[in-house]
Specification:
Layout: H1 2-9, H2 14-45, H3 48-53, H4 58-63, H5 66-82, H6 94-110, H7 112-146, H8 155-164, E1 174-183, E2 194-199, E3 216-219, E4 225-231, E5 233-240, E6 247-253, E7 258-265
Parallel strand pairs: 1-7
Antiparallel strand pairs: 1-4, 2-3, 2-5, 5-6
Length: about 270
């Protein structure tokens, strides 16, 4: 159970985010082409109402949030459908309109995936904390007591158990946390985002408690990336940057392993 939850806790969401970004780019590219063709048609026939209804730039689509950009693209799609016969001579085929509809549908389907992955990671982290606590209690309240039955009958086994139960804090116990932070919706890397790691020690991690008593703060670099070396523990991570909504997540790191932390921030 611990290994299963550990694997889920370190779930890599980069692939999901990359797929989402690619589908958004495809949708916006098709939408911008359609806007261009509709504007050309509206100018020729002197239709200011149509021009005003599709008055969107590449910047508008890039900066808009997920649901907003889908709304814009659907508006343009509706105008293309309403003027489908007229814009054929402006280079717009029925197949192009269908492709835009498919691109909007494909992008809309990606919106729930990162949330589902994050929910799975959060649940696994909560499970790990509980499982570690239960394992620690089993060791202390049962096995550490019952082992005395074997002190004389099986001295080798007794000695091996006692040796295995010695917790040795080592300076080389640091493990890596690799993180990235992007703007929700666009996938744009965010620089200067603060990640504050606050240790949440429990019975199995007392050996490192003194090492992690103070919060550890890291900031994302130009490409929204950062690396942190942390002792084995469970951490509450506070993610914040002026102008963006603060987030709090929990992660568990283990010796000799790399934990991935990928965050999407929304603007205020």
């Amino acid at each position: 159970m611990i290994e299963q939850n550990r694997d889920a806790q370190t779930l890599e969401t980069t692939g999901i985010t990359t797929d989402k970004t690619a589908k958004r780019n495809s949708m916006t590219e098709k939408t911008l082409f359609m806007i261009n063709r509709l504007q050309s048609y509206a100018n020729v026939v002197n239709n200011p109402e149509l021009l005003e209804s599709i008055k969107y730039s590449a910047s508008d689509l890039k900066k808009s949030r997920d649901t907003d950009v889908i709304g814009i693209c659907n508006t343009v799609l509706a105008k293309a459908n309403a003027n489908a016969a007229a814009i054929v001579t402006y280079g717009v085929t029925a197949a192009m309109i269908t492709e835009l509809q498919a691109a909007i549908t494909a992008y809309s389907a990606t919106l729930a995936k990162p949330k589902a992955a994050k929910s799975q990671t959060k649940t696994a982290t909560e499970n790990l904390t509980k499982l570690f606590k239960e394992a620690d209690e089993l060791l202390v309240k049962r096995l550490d007591l019952d082992i005395e039955l074997f002190k004389t009958t099986k001295p080798d086994f007794y000695s091996q158990y006692k040796t295995a139960r010695i917790i040795i804090p080592t300076g080389g116990g640091a493990t890596s946390v690799l993180g990235s932070v992007t703007l929700a919706g666009s996938g744009e890397p965010l620089k200067g985002v603060s990640f504050t790691f606050v240790a949440e020690t429990n019975g199995m991690m007392k050996a490192t408690a003194t090492e992690t008593s103070k919060p550890i703060v890291k900031k994302s670099a130009d490409k929204g990336k950062f690396r942190a070396s942390l002792p084995e523990n469970t951490y509450k991570v506070i993610v914040e940057k002026i102008g963006y909504k603060k987030q709090e997540v929990t992660i568990t790191v283990a010796n000799g392993e790399t934990t991935n932390l990928n965050i999407e921030l929304d603007k205020n």
